[in-house]
Write a structure and sequence with these properties.
Length: 171
């Protein structure tokens, strides 16, 4: 399967991302394309547009507080434009999927805590965030199983192990 044409804006708000993963912008581009190509039945026709913001905990904490009522940082937030039923659709213009925002300190700490390479954990979270933009969710067991299964298959295509496996099973 091939991904639809997508304009992917990458915003580097925290220099720590580039220090840890020097190829981060190219990595984001390829991960987003992989996620879009991996779900052909769910991807709308036509050109797409989305942004990935590589931020810090402070930025993500403020967004999480203001939009979700949770005054704490989290690893990734997704703001899906497709959730906005009043969003204008302009014929011929790219369809805005939304924004994925990642928090440097939280993502790095989670990777270290789990013993997973930062690049692998980052890859998982970018794919996870993009799938949210496409309408995937994990609010109930069936939705979670579908989303996690898709994430696991996409990551496996990159040689990355199942992020949902128990740590003991990974060793």
């Amino acid at each position: 399967m091939t991904a639809p044409v997508a304009e992917i804006a990458v915003s580097l708000e925290s220099p720590a991302w580039v220090e840890a993963l020097p190829d981060i912008e190219a990595r984001v581009q390829s991960l987003v394309q992989l996620a879009l190509a991996g779900v052909p039945d769910d991807v709308p026709d036509g050109p797409l547009e989305l942004s990935v913001v590589l931020a810090d905990d402070e930025t993500v904490r403020a967004l999480n507080r203001d939009w979700r009522g949770k005054d704490a940082p989290t690893n990734v937030l997704s703001f899906a434009a497709l959730d906005d039923e009043e969003a204008p659709l302009v014929e011929g213009a790219p369809l805005l999927l939304g924004d994925v925002i990642l928090a440097w300190e939280t993502v790095a700490a989670e990777a270290a805590e789990s013993g997973r390479p930062l690049a692998d954990h980052f890859s998982h979270l970018v794919i996870h965030g993009v799938l949210h933009l496409l309408g995937f969710d994990h609010q109930d067991e069936d939705e979670a199983a579908e989303m996690e299964g898709l994430e696991t298959r996409l990551l496996a295509s990159l040689g990355i192990s199942d992020p949902y496996q128990d740590e003991d099973d990974r060793r």
